[in-house]
Specification:
Layout lengths: L1 E7 L6 H8 L2 H4 L2 E7 L4 H10 L4 E5 H9 L4 E8 L4 E7 L14 E4 L5 H12 L8 E4 L3 H10 L4 E5 L4 H5 L3 E8 L5 E6 H6 L1 H17 L6 H8 L4 H10 L9 H13 L9 H4 L3
Parallel strand pairs: 1-2, 1-3, 6-7, 6-8
Antiparallel strand pairs: 3-10, 4-10, 5-8, 5-9
Helix pairs in contact: 1-9, 4-12, 10-11
Length: about 280
């Protein structure tokens, strides 16, 4: 058996991986795929790839591109989710803020430095014409940390995936005052260079298995109910999410990578741009 460590967020996007693991589909091909849930998100997974704590990460596009440009010895092998990620912009339920424009110069709760929640705070600020150099952050690690931060007044708003945070909106913990979709496909699969060199056939087989699952994922009988039960969501919300989510079985395009890098560069989040082959394993 070939041991491969993989990390991803404990969110609805990644249920296809768990279905494959439950069915023993990787083991059948001689691969011991060891999944780790990472509620802290992309910033944490970038660190795990750098340290070798994980070999593979299902990770936000903008976060891993930024980290590879910054020296992470990994490359993207495939787009995992083609559709944008819909980032909800949340405030505490009792907050005085009523619109996104009220958040100018306010403190954003973020999971970690380099996380999607931080990078999208920059994207959101730029889209409203705010001075991105004036952004301020409170590092909260997880959604639970954000709940505490907003309640205590340490931060003023928190950006996280619209549907995963909706139960907190429904419970009256958060109030959502806007949404900000990513301008590119949201999730990619990244692999450490060392693993790409040592186990290329295992990585190829892993992609083949997950791609077969995601191609038919929406057609699985009872999948909306399974998702709702697993992630404590309303079935109507899951069905809405499924209708707007498209998985991918394709590598990134140069146009997509250029768009991400150009945005990161314009926001001064990277100070150089890498070549396509430095970021993507063809």
């Amino acid at each position: 058996m070939t041991d491969i460590k993989i990390a991803g967020v404990p969110e609805h996007f990644n249920l296809p991986w768990h279905l494959c693991l439950e069915a023993g589909e990787f083991a059948t091909e001689g691969i011991n795929l060891q999944w780790t849930d990472v509620p802290e998100g992309t910033g944490k997974m970038c660190s795990m790839l750098r340290s070798g704590e994980t070999d593979v990460a299902v990770i936000l596009t903008e976060g891993i591109v930024k980290d590879i440009v910054g020296g992470n010895p990994s490359r993207i092998v495939q787009v995992y989710v083609e559709s944008p990620l819909l980032w909800g912009i949340h405030v505490a339920a009792g907050s005085p803020y009523q619109s996104v424009s009220d958040l100018k110069d306010k403190v954003a709760a973020i999971s970690r430095i380099g996380s999607g929640s931080q990078l999208m705070a920059y994207v959101n600020a730029a889209s409203h014409g705010w001075d991105t150099s004036a952004l301020r952050f409170d590092i909260v690690n997880t959604i639970d940390g954000a709940v505490g931060s907003l309640a205590a007044g340490k931060s003023d708003y928190f950006m996280w995936e619209h549907f995963m945070t909706k139960p907190l909106v429904d419970q009256g913990v958060f109030r959502r005052i806007g949404d900000c979709p990513t301008p590119w496909p949201c999730f990619v699969i990244a692999v450490r260079d060392q693993i790409l060199e040592k186990h290329p056939e295992a990585i190829r087989k892993i992609l083949e298995i997950i791609n077969l699952k995601t191609k038919t994922f929406k057609q699985i009988s009872g999948i909306a109910h399974r998702l709702a039960q697993t992630f404590h969501q309303k079935t109507d919300d899951i069905e809405a999410w499924l209708s707007m989510t498209e998985w991918s079985q394709q590598p990134p395009t140069e146009d997509m990578l250029n768009k991400v890098q150009n945005q990161l560069f314009d926001l001064s989040l990277i100070d150089k741009k890498a070549t396509f082959t430095e970021i993507v394993k063809a």
